[in-house]
């Protein structure tokens, strides 16, 4: 099955490269550094005793950040190699770590690409964030005696059904993993049902609960909020990580909210940077006065929407708002991380599609911190209700923060598992 998978991958390679070039029409970074995806890059002379950490894009990179910082501090004799697959993930790596890690794009899951990468990097271990199960990569590491740990692992029921269609390949792949540190017992048992040996499963919780808000970030957010309120914005809400099809619903809800609550500012942050311009056009078409974050201008009394069209600022932008809607949930995308706004202590709203964060969503909903909505009308209803009740916003926000605080500790458990793996390869 793995050889058949490889054959199909090679056949599809021209289409994959063509898709990169097509995406580069809107995001030019996709056409840059393509050679890295085939395992071609200059190897620094100082690249010794490496630990390879793979994160797909921005979300996984942010989740991996505390682990990477711990690895840098606790293993000073090692060099962390951090790979991503998207330009936005690459930019986030550079913003977070600068030259303290070695960053390249991950190689395509093809034997020759992986062989070139491993020859250059020579990792003592591979740590994969969440659920990036690449058969040839994991097989190549197993053949070379490179242990592999799947960190902060999650596996939705939908994804498990997909892997089950290729049970032979999936079982062989999972048996080559040394450790899976799952976010919860339900996801962990899905890995076991697909073929992971039970003794290789650890349930560690989600490291996304281990969010640390920098005191300077908190102080800066307070100053900015005060400035914007002085400009006339009594309430500020944020719609974050929105996808195509959601922005229209968000703007419709914002129109109704402003009609009933008056001076309300929306911070709208699309999930993908290639959509920034089209969302700006949508805001203008709907008749809202808009300031783009990238312009450096502050919203004034006439501004109805601040478009968050910069990268790496989402956590800071959450700190400016009074209530948050998290996107990817009014369309079938499975939702995005609700814990970042929760850590700021604000009431949360999402749509019904939350399969990527089902357990976290359930915890927040049970605590009374999260309300789910089906469409623009329900979103507007929920926003109007919160806008009219300061005490209710504070109550739900406090419950969201309490959920985050009470579930910390996953990072420590994951670091312990990584240390066990690295100690087995000490040299």
Walk me through what this model shows.
This protein has 427 residues and is an alpha/beta fold. The chain has two domains: 2-7 and 28-210 and 409-423, Rossmann fold; 215-406, Glycogen Phosphorylase B (Rossmann fold). It has helices at residues 2-23, 58-74, 87-97, 111-121, 135-143, 157-164, 167-174, 185-194, 215-230, 247-261, 276-285, 314-318, 339-343, 358-366, 376-387, 390-406, 410-423, and strands at residues 50-54, 79-84, 102-105, 123-129, 148-153, 179-182, 201-203, 235-242, 264-270, 290-292, 305-307, 323-326, 348-350, 370-372. Strands 3-2-1-4-5-6-7 form a seven-stranded parallel beta sheet, sandwiched between helices. Helix 4 packs across helix 5 and helix 6 (157-164) packs parallel to helix 8. The chain is globular. The mean pLDDT is 93.
